[in-house]
Amino acid sequence: MTFDDQPLVLVGMMGSGKSNVGKKLSRRLDIPFVDSDHEIVERAGQSIPELFAARGEPAFRELEAQVIAELLGRGPRLIIATGGGVVLDPATRHRLQGDATVVWLRATAGPLAHRIKRDGSRPLLADDPDGAIRRLVAEREPLYREVADIVIDVDHLERKVVTQRVLAALGLAADPADGSRAETVGGVTPSEVPS
Ligand code: S3P
Q: What's the pLDDT at 189?
């Protein structure tokens, strides 16, 4: 894969750092960044909590699948941060497998709960955030795994370290000296981007 072939897509649970790491990668590689949740909000003219309340999760998921298809259709040289539930739609998983290099920022439930459970902008965590996070992690791990080319364990790591690990897994930086646990699942080879 090179950035001239396919977009780079970040997947993972809410709070795993997709947007932050995506922006850092974008600055480092000088490749445009887009956040699919922002596109959805713009298109709907409503915030995500408003959208969930007014039209329900199924309508949100439908819009999310449309937005992702459209973003993947924009072609290569794009870094896309997705919402945590993007992998729920089978057609989207299929698209991600074929049309993108996918990096899964893998986080476990305990550290995630610590980070996000009081965040009021996430409707799925409204009641019983700890239980919801545990349930969502368990349900979604197999789906993230299904689409991932690269897996980065992010628990307790600063975003800039996660960013370095993504770059290293893409062959764009020296392996971190601290024993990175990035796992390359697919056939990703070094990308041709400016250093
Ligand atoms: C969701 C994650 C959110 C947002 C929506 C649903 C999910 O995005 O798309 O609240 O189902 O996990 P982030 O992962 O960016 O928080």
A: 44
Give residue-wise pLDDT tens across range 92-146. Answer: 999 999 999 999 999 999 999 988 877 778 888 888 889 999 999 999 999 999 9
User: Ligand 1 center to residue 75 CA distance, Å?
Assistant: 24
Ligand 1 pocket by Cβ (under 6 Å): 14, 37, 48, 83-85, 122-124
Among 48, 50, 87, 122, say which to mutate for ligand 1: greatest number of ligand atoms within 8 Å of CB: 122
Quick check: 124 and 136 in contact, CB under 8 A? Answer: yes
Residue nearest to atom 15 of ligand 1 (CA): 83
List, in sequence order, the alpha helices (H) in 101-128: 109-116
Q: What is the pLDDT of residues 153-192, one digit of tens each?
A: 999 999 999 999 999 999 987 555 554 555 666 545 434 3
Q: Largest alpha-carbon pair distance within the chain?
A: 49
Q: Whose CA is nearest to atom 10 of ligand 1?
A: 122
Tokens linked to 12? 């993972």
Output the residue whose Cα is nearest ligand 1's atom 11.
Answer: 85
Q: First vs last Cα of the chain: how many Å apart? A: 16
User: Measured between alpha carbons, how far is residue 142 from residues 2, 66, 86 in Å?
Assistant: 26, 23, 13
Whole-angstrom distance, CA of residue 120 vs CA of residue 11: 21
